[in-house]
Amino acid sequence: MKTKSFIVLWALAFVLVSCNKVTPVDTPPNNSEEKMEQTDAKSVALAGMNAMFKDFSQEETKKYLAADYIQHNPGVPTGAEPIIGFLPGLKEAGITCESHRIFQDGDHVVFHNSYDNAQAFGAEKIVTFDVFRIADGKIAEHWDNITPLVTETVSGRTQVDGPTEITDLDKTDENKEMVKNFIDDVLFGKNPQKITDYVSTEKYHQHNTAIGDGLDGLGKALEYLASQNDMFQYEKVHKILGEGNFVLAMSEGNWHGKAQAFYDLFRIEDGKIVEHWDVIQEIPAEMAHENGKF
User: Fold this and answer.
1) Is 0.70 surpassed by the pTM of this model?
2) Of the ranges 143-152, 178-187, 228-237, which one carries the lowest mean pLDDT score?
3) 48 vs 42: CA distance, rounded Å
4) pLDDT the model gives residue 111
5) Residue 118 is part of a domain; what is its CATH number?
């Protein structure tokens, strides 16, 4: 598929499904003086993750979770005590966690993880984005998106492989703004013809399990979704978090006729999106708390 025809297809698809009531998210500068030092928040989040998923230590976990810990995982009650109470069961199940990417935006720390023996979270093997907010030296809030691990993908890439090094720290705010504009123009359908202003036409590595590499791969997937009258629909962006060349967008919308949470991780190189990972999860009508998914 040529680039021009791809742009036409993308534009038509998003004109058909884009929602009039869309809410972009603000992206405050990464270097705000009010934000926590990078090493402080990241070290707290890492220590908390190790306490929970490596040591399974209830005493250590208590040190890192705020007592009024706010939970957004739909199936887990809010507060620190439910998490602490789950640890013996997780240890018995033999759950293991591997963090593939870790980056920070102020007091938020993002983990791109995979878990094994994770039946407690819906499947034996899962891929997640886990986002923690750190306050007063403790994990105060947690968001996540979870999907089963898929072994065969259209691109041949896995859901977690690819570069991990954080670079271009001086371009953090620029890259976050670019992703914000990409979502506004392309995913919200305001100016979808501008997709090549944001996504590289030379190199675009895809980790979505059903989409091939490059704009051609994305075009084929869109063509199929349009033929099935099943185009995904972005309706609101809740957070855009980034550090250097990695930017995560946390959004909600609709797909398959159901409310969905879209977590999209982009790698930016020379001002263009060159790689994409995602986790899409249905938002249930009932949750174990009243905090909502976002």
Assistant:
1) yes
2) 228-237
3) 10
4) 98
5) 3.10.450.50
